[in-house]
Amino acid sequence: MKSYEVNFDGLVGPTHNYGGLSYGNVASQSNSQQGSNPKEAALQGLAKMKALMEMGFQQGVLAPQERPDVAALRNLGFAGTDAQVIQQAAQQAMPLLVASCSASSMWVANAATVSPSADTADGRVHFTAANLNCKYHRSIEHPTTSRVLGAMFADQKHFAHHAALPAVAQFGDEGAANHTRFCRDYGEAGVEFFVFGRSAFDTRYPAPQKYPARQTLEASQAVARLHGLSDEGVVYAQQNPSVIDQGVFHNDVIAVGNGEVLFYHEDAFLETERMLAELQAKLGKRGGRFQSICVPRAQVTVDDAVRSYLFNSQLLSRADGSMLLIVPEECRGNERVWQYLQSLTSSGGLIREVKVFDLKQSMQNGGGPACLRLRVALNETELAAVNPGVIMTAPLYDTLAQWVGKHYRDRLRESDLADPQLLLECRTALDELTQILKLGAVYPFQIN
Q: Does residue 365 sit within a domain?
């Protein structure tokens, strides 16, 4: 039976704005308070989805969240009508209103951790929604994320869903941004690679000094247990604390893996040689041949990697066995990064081609091509069981592009978030979107 890696890209929400909410994310902080263009952001994301679909890759779409999150504001003591809640928050605590309007759910690499059926004890695809506990504006996402994923992958014969881990610092979980999977074939048992920034309980592991380490070892271990993964099919590795302090807030900012290949920066991990040896040994026992591509710091610095998002790229397997790297335009704008990529693709190695996409609206808020997609490995039977409304097709692309044009603003500043009309616009758009994607009632305003 044939198997696929399906990329489900996050659809950028109508309240896309630059709130500078993510401490430790250099791009998010440096572009704080600038005006954003939600319409352009959504269309840039859709253009990437369409292009990959036309290249022959399986592509899906994951819906955004309802924003502003009025229920979250009510939980913080604001009261009255929805309009009054928004106005009170704007007058009394603007940072909380900005947080409640964040469109960060567009980066669905943080939506969940996914284990394919070939790896799990019960032979189902397992999903655990990430609690994103490190940042308030992201910690409010997982209830809706769980409902949306449940509507997309509803057949309990094939799919299992787990609630987010406890919302405490010891179990900080950032989802697939700190997780990847190596395998010979997507339908065969593989090795799941969990990268953590710190341990909550074991003081032997060093921690960064400037920026927070968002993913804990204990959270990664809990997800592996929930998914029924065997010890032979799991490798844990610690992110280098010094690169976290340089703005590498997730592992997918400094490394990306796919198939049998890990593409990473020389400074990405602690105990790199031990980690590589373990990956090679465990994948070898499952019939695979692990291979790694190390980018030397002498050619590309950590600062270059953070500013260009070289590693926040999509590494895709093509039918001829070669690999394609999807990078943001910022990689072409960095001389050292672009020179490295030219030498990489001309060397006749594993990565044969680089394709560049303009994702400026997302990049300015701290998310590149890899942030925008959640990877789900599915066999043919499982793919047939996915809600067909979320699988990208040419007609769906056209419908979504028209939907964006109809509902999205082309300019949004912080002061606009206090406009109660924005909530009505968002709800009207999302109500129509759930019909387009055949999701049913997944948003609070549709349920309550």
A: yes
